[in-house]
Write a structure and sequence with these properties.
This protein has ten helices and 29 strands. It has 535 residues and is α+β, with helices and mostly antiparallel strands. Among the domains are: 64 residues, wza like fold (2-Layer Sandwich); 73 residues, Roll (Outer membrane lipoprotein wza fold like), CATH 3.10.560; 102 residues, Outer membrane lipoprotein wza domain like (Outer membrane lipoprotein wza fold like, Roll). Strands 9-8-12-10-11 form a five-stranded mixed beta sheet, covered by helices on one side. Helix 7 runs antiparallel to helix 8 and helix 7 packs antiparallel against helix 10. The longest helix has 24 residues.
Length: 535
């Protein structure tokens, strides 16, 4: 009997333990907050760079006594030295003399030294100067941080480094968006760390002894869960925001179709509403926003564009083929049915990922490329800046996700997806020539004209033209590559509505970088229909 009783007690305890485990809110033990409370940017402050002394270039830093300055000469006179700012605010450069630099902004240092050097060396002497270290300062960090106090750093340190020294922002009560720097009782700079977290933008400033960094309290926020890339608590600057603006924070996945919003009114009553992912209601402080994917939906929405009559939005059953839709379209008399195009979001996403991966690889190669000589390093630096600017512009290109429909394709096997766009182009008698030609533009179609005739009609190639990679894009989206430098040139018949794209030819001492840029230019031209100039 005792054994049975003990067994029953054990079962009851196990059931009770399971019940408690299932009803407790999941907790992030490391930060002592519930998973629901975990704010966007929670992992920014982990002490990884609190003690790093990195002399970050600050153009507004003012030269101080004791600063060390590196100076490099090359050309007709070559020398390299490090000088220190003396007690009178001067530096001494052999053969040049004394230069007063105290209080000078770092961005103007090079110009001042260059002007002094030119008074002595009239021609063919070049100079580069840079501040090697910045002054140590003591800064107070207070407000909603984990360990308020006085912390030592460099005047060039970023605000994130000082916050990290204080073990970061209090995740329950601290604001990531309302951080202030005070000097002599007045706010001289405010910071919103979402600018850094979302866009990589961070204002630099010169800290001084006695500055105070104050982290304000969290006031407005919204909880996010579900089918998103960022399921966090997001801080708002105002008590309300529209759903479409808020989506830029949460980043819903492509599969998300609906939004469920839980809102508590003034009387504490819970109100739950459901919206389409494309609706734009206001959501308010304290709301819980859950993005969901309704995979069981029986219908999908297709967009129609181009030479068709009637509605440009079509709702069809899941599993509908492209052929079924094309058979039901009301075409315009000017429609070119032989050049119908399909644009798909998932394909555009894959194209974007491919281009971004190639750009990232190119960026790493550029940043790790080095040169032996000082003059070579200068050229490398200029070339790197041009290529990095090209990478920045290329990342802004959005591929179209075009699916080429070959004439032999069985369109019954092409099943439409949510968000597909079917484009029916108009019949055209125009040929467009774009890219590295002297006068890009459109030309009327002439049956006997060859590709060379069309190129000559717009003034011919520019000096930067990549004649080995001339692209002919048919109205259907089909792409043909033409090599104008080949000994035996293949004959390509230009058709009505064709686009001729002449890519630019990158020039770099690094053959691999040249090859990578050429491939990226090609991918952008194919996926986005854009000829992007390198320089």
């Amino acid at each position: 009997m005792k054994k049975i009783l003990l067994f029953l007690i054990l079962i009851i305890n196990l059931v009770w333990a399971v019940d408690i485990a299932m009803t407790q809110t999941p907790v992030d033990s490391e930060n002592n907050i519930t998973l629901k409370e975990k704010p966007f940017g929670y992992n920014l402050f982990k002490g990884h760079f609190a003690n790093i002394k990195q002399f970050i270039y600050n153009p507004h830093y003012r030269i101080n006594i004791g600063d060390k300055i590196s100076i490099v000469f090359w050309g007709a006179f070559e020398n390299q030295l490090v000088v220190e700012v003396d007690n009178q605010g001067n530096i001494f450069i052999p053969k040049v003399g004394v230069i007063h630099v105290l209080g000078l902004e770092a961005s103007k240092l090079n110009i001042v030294i260059q002007n002094a050097v030119k008074k002595v060396f009239k021609n063919n002497v070049f100079v580069y100067a840079n501040v090697l270290n910045y002054q140590p300062v003591n800064v107070f960090v207070t407000g909603n941080v984990n360990y308020p106090g006085l912390y030592q750093g460099l005047s060039s340190d970023s605000i994130i480094q000082f916050l990290d020294k204080a073990k970061g922002i209090n995740l329950k009560n601290g604001s990531f968006r309302k951080i202030y720097v005070k000097r002599n009782g007045k706010i001289i700079r405010s910071y919103d760390l979402y600018n850094f977290l979302l866009g990589g933008n961070l204002q630099m400033m010169e800290f001084k002894n006695g500055d105070i960094i104050y982290v304000d309290s969290l006031k407005y926020y919204i909880y996010v869960t579900g089918d998103v890339k960022r399921a966090y608590r997001f801080e708002l600057l105002y008590p309300e925001i529209t759903l479409q603006k808020f989506k830029k924070y949460a980043l819903p996945n492509e599969t998300a179709t609906s939004v469920i919003v839980k809102h508590w009114d003034k009387n504490g009553k819970l109100i739950t509403k459901k919206y389409s992912i494309n609706d734009n209601p206001f959501i308010f402080n304290g709301d819980e926003v859950n993005f969901i994917s309704e995979h069981n939906a029986k219908q999908i929405t297709i967009k129609l564009d181009g030479a068709i009559k009637g509605s440009h939005t079509l709702i069809v059953k899941k599993g509908t083929s492209l052929k079924e839709v094309l058979n039901e379209l009301n075409y315009s008399p000017f429609a070119n049915k032989n050049a119908i195009q399909l644009y798909r979001k998932s394909i555009a996403k894959l194209q974007k990922q491919l281009i971004d991966a190639q750009l990232k690889d190119l960026e790493q190669k550029v940043l790790t490329s080095s040169s032996v000589t000082t003059a070579g390093a200068t050229i490398k630096k200029e070339e790197a800046e041009l290529i990095l600017n090209f990478i920045k512009r290329a990342r802004q290109i959005q591929p179209k996700g075009r699916v080429v429909l070959n004439k032999d394709t069985n369109l019954s096997n092409v099943i439409l997806e949510e968000g597909d766009t079917i484009y029916v182009p108009k019949k055209s008698s125009i040929v467009t020539i774009q890219g590295e030609v002297k006068i890009p533009g459109a030309q009327t179609y002439v049956p006997k004209y060859t590709l060379e005739d069309y190129i000559n009609s717009v003034g011919g190639f520019t000096n930067r033209a990549d004649k080995e990679h001339v692209l002919i894009i048919r109205q259907s989206g089909k792409v043909i590559t033409y090599d104008d430098t080949a000994f035996f040139k293949k004959h390509i018949k230009i058709k009505k509505g064709d686009s001729i794209l002449v890519l630019g030819k990158p020039s770099s001492e690094n053959l691999q970088i040249t090859k990578d840029i050429t491939q990226i230019l090609y991918q952008i031209a194919i996926s986005a229909g854009v000829v992007l100039r390198l320089f």
